[in-house]
């Protein structure tokens, strides 16, 4: 091996073996923490109070998904709530067909942007309003139409809340992630744009008829 190769190899070895300077490690850590804090301030305000397993980030409904939701809302009347309304696109679409819509959104930047957009478009608050609020802590019994584009991990818990609070005549539209054990009344679209409609009366009827599986010890008797 040439001398120069030996020197380079030796240098590389020494670099690999050298422990990182504590100052370098500390400043890199502080920088990453700062970037993360900044990101949480803008992207996830309000989220600190939501349990980890119920956190859902902002991802707007696409055009096709929104159209699919509107197909399943055809002929519906009354009040609609969008759980996690983001920039307000589902609320605006539903208010267009005469539903009185409310969007609950935990990220106040998104709520404010939806409010400004409503004002800019001249949509009155009686048609579309946006509230900075955690929907998990909000009673939903006044709504007979619900839209939810959330995450697979929260659908079970959401199902329990809606079963407790919604009236029988309510229709729930789940976007992209269906309720695991609920029978759907209708569905539109495919793949990432698929949406499902659930009529609460039918869901309750079906869940009551379906016997709950007994715990193992009891089934063995
Ligand atoms: C996947 S996005 C859907 C946005 C909008 N509904 C749409 O279809 O375009 C989910 C939204 O729910 C909001 N969110 C998550 N948890 C929430 C909570 N507990 N209360 C209110 N909003 C929440 C998020 O900030 C995010 O904007």
TrEMBL record:
Top-level taxonomic group: Eukaryota
Molecular function GO terms recorded: protein-lysine N-methyltransferase activity
Transmembrane feature ranges: 20-39
GO biological processes: methylation; regulation of mitochondrial ATP synthesis coupled proton transport
InterPro entries: FAM173A/B (IPR026170), SAM-dependent_MTases_sf (IPR029063)
GO cellular component: mitochondrion
Keyword Transmembrane appears in the UniProt entry: yes
Keywords (A to Z) from UniProt: Membrane, Methyltransferase, S-adenosyl-L-methionine, Transferase, Transmembrane, Transmembrane helix
UniProt record similarity statement: Belongs to the ANT/ATPSC lysine N-methyltransferase family.
Record-given protein name: Adenine nucleotide translocase lysine N-methyltransferase isoform X1
Protein species of origin: Clupea harengus
The organism's taxonomic lineage, starting at the top: Eukaryota, Metazoa, Chordata, Craniata, Vertebrata
Gene: si:dkey-190g11.3
């Amino acid at each position: 091996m040439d001398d120069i190769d030996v020197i380079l190899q030796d240098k590389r070895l020494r670099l690999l073996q050298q422990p990182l300077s504590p100052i370098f490690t500390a400043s890199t850590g502080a920088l990453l923490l700062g970037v993360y804090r900044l990101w949480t301030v803008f992207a996830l305000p309000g989220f600190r109070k939501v349990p980890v397993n119920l956190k859902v980030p902002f991802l707007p409904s696409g055009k096709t998904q929104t159209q699919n939701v509107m197909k399943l809302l055809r002929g519906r009347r009354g009040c609609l709530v969008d759980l996690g309304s983001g920039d307000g696109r589902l609320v605006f679409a539903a208010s267009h067909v005469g539903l009185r819509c409310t969007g609950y959104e935990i990220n106040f930047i998104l709520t404010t942007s939806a409010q400004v957009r409503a004002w800019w478009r001249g949509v009155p608050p009686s048609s579309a309003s946006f509230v900075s609020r955690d929907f998990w802590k909000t009673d939903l019994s006044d709504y007979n139409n619900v839209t939810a584009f959330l995450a697979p991990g929260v659908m079970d818990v959401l199902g329990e809340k809606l079963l407790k609070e919604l009236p029988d005549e309510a229709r729930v539209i789940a976007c992209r992630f269906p309720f695991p054990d609920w029978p759907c009344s209708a569905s539109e679209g495919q793949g990432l744009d698929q949406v499902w409609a659930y009529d609460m009366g039918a869901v309750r009827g079906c869940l009551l008829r379906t016997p709950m599986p007994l715990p193992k010890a009891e089934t063995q008797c």
